[in-house]
Amino acid sequence: MFSKSNDKSMTVKIMNKSTRPANSAPSIIGSDVTIKGDVSTLGEIQLDGTVEGDVRSASLTIGEQGSVRGVVTAEEVIVKGSVEGQIKGRNIRIEKTAKVKGDLFHETLSVEAGAFIEGKLTHKKDATQDKSAFSKVSEHKVPAQKTV
After folding, report:
1. pTM, full prediction
2. Do the domain assignments include residue 145?
């Protein structure tokens, strides 16, 4: 069933909406867990550990000890911990213990007094679906070469 491999990457297949139970419990990433790679689910995530990669879910709560280095995309986002990267969500709530370094793309936004935000705030309808919000900062155009 399990075999040892030199490949340290791991792929997890996520259930689609038709196979996922309607009343499923949230996925909990504990404070002693570090994930290097992208995390994706159709459900809810409670993140108290560390993710070094992108996180995509329907609902994401980043606890006070939780942190993400990457792009966060979710319908509902609550940040109590730290995020280094973009946050794209319909409803984003930044609580007083949060530290965010990155741009926020939102439909509704609430920020508690004492929260730290360093980045651009952009109001967008359907922020999780907007392709321009998903453009990579590192992309650049190579100038066209002239032919003689």
Report:
1. 0.73
2. no
Query: Is 148 among the domain residues?
Result: no
Q: What's the CA gap between 139 and 141, in Å, rounded?
A: 7
Provide the domain count of the chain: 1
User: Could you report the per-residue pLDDT of 27-60, keeping only the tens digit for each?
Assistant: 999 999 999 999 999 999 999 999 999 999 999 9
For residue 37, being part of any structural domain is answered with: yes
pLDDT tens digits along 56-92: 999 999 999 999 999 999 999 999 999 999 999 999 9
Q: Per the structure block, which two tokens stand in for 17?
A: 């909406």
**Structural domain boundaries, residue 90:** 27-129
Instruction: Kindly tell me if the per-residue pLDDT of 131 is higher than 90.
Output: no
Is the distance from CB of 37 to CB of 9 less than 8 angstroms? yes
Q: What residue has token string 């867990």?
A: 33
Asked if residue 95 lies in contact with residue 80, where contact means CB atoms within 8 angstroms, the answer is yes
Is 18 among the domain residues?
Answer: no
Tokens 């159709």 belong to 42
Query: Following DSSP, what letter does each residue of 104-143 receive, concatenated?
Result: EEEEEEEE-TT-EEES-EEE-TTTTT-TGGG--TT--PPP
